[in-house]
Give the backbone structure.
Amino acid sequence: MSFLQLVRREMRGSLRKLLFMAAIGGISSAAVLTAINAGAQAASESVNSSLWAIALFLVALTLFVWSQPYVTTTISAEIEAIIHKLRVRLMDAVRRSELLSIDDIGRSRIVAGINADSGVLTQASNTLVYSMQSIVLIFFISIYVAYLSLAAFIMSAVIVGIASWIFHLRSRRLAVERVRAADQERQLFDRMDDFLDGFKEVRLNDARSVELFDDAVEVSRAAANIKIGAQVQTFRQIVSVQSYMYVLLGAVVFAAPRFGESLGGASIPKATTALLFVVGACFGLVQSIPILLNANAAADRLQKLVADLSAAVSTEVDETKVVTRFDVIEMRNIVFRYVDKFSDTAFHIGPIDFTLRAGELVFITGGNGSGKSTLLRVLAGLYPPNSGEITLDGMFVGDQTRDTYRSLFSAIFFDYHLFRKLYGIPEPEPGEIDRLLTLFRLQTKTGISRGEFRTLDLSSGQRRRLALIVSMLERRPILLLDEWTAEQDPEFRRKFYDEVLPQLMQSGKTIVVITHDDRYLDELELPARRIRMDEGRIVDQRSMHGGG
């Protein structure tokens, strides 16, 4: 998949019209040169310039001024439109992909595709315009050179052909180095993620900070060395091509006249002047090739990313098909295994049998790594089980029905994300948001204005409270909470168990809570069920009928 193929396939306008206008620009440039040559010859012979030369110059200049803005504007607009379409495809594929697929592809690759690679294509738009113009200019001036001196044309064709062949062979080797450099830069992006996402852990452990920094420096150095090597080879290519162009001029000036008048030896001065235009265009074209090669590699990466994300989408999302109530969800002999290829972290649960009935309150307890969060993700349909089955009111939940099944759930996972806008949430009733903000003691911290929060600059505990407000506004039948109270102060933790949970249960919610708050569970006055997990299995399950 190349940059030029991408432009040709995706462009909305007429490619023929664009090429025609580019040809007009090239012809007008060659015509300007012809008129100037004619005028220069007349001046050297001390005669007035002919009217045809003046007319040709004015017409050619008019055509050039008319065609060039069209070509540059059209190419820029087309490439930006193509980039927009690719971004939309990527974002659409991401939202319809499965969690495991996103984990396999990697966050850095997706972000690099949307930001860095699309930026490379934008940078290449003007270069592509210049390259097209240079190619057209070289073609038509070559015809003019052939008309002036066949000897000069033959020499030019041979020397340029040899230079192009050598340049092509070397460019193929450089393409491999550019791919390696891009991989190293993605690794560096992962290290920066570690610095930012794990900032607290880095600051608390000097040894970790030093080793992470050393690792990032090594990755950066490797990327820099690869890019330096590629740039050195690129510059050598440019110098090599420039040398060939100088050889071309020397051959035309010193060797072509020896072929005599039969091959146009008398027109060598005019041919040399024309070739100076060609040499200038060739220099610019050669300097633009590295940018176009980078764009070519970026286009390949983007297309591969779109293909990988599209392959991760098993079914089309029917956004109108939702479930607003249920009676029972059953998990039978569920087994799920997954190893994160980036961190080598293993997730495993099962075999598990679990039943969730409408209106229940279920607490999941267990030590770290016991599989609680993984179970919650499998229950929510974010992780498809490797074996076993999930049924919703007797209906098997598979690839074709998983999106509908997921419409039952709202969740606050431990690594939750808080959106600034209330995406996908119906317009709240008047006063409802103010009531909830007051309930969670956030009325003086933030609020809603034009469908979005005024600020998210809150403490961790306050952000979790705001996330719970959003989940309540979703009005989904089932609410999943993963260590929601972990960052709450003791006062609000007590408020959660004594006030918030009873209100949620009275509203008809089915709630599943991962918690370590054994003390509060023993004092809870709500009917509930408590299960304990260990090594990926449910090892204990009992009812709580209030007061422990």
Notes: The chain has 15 helices and twelve strands.
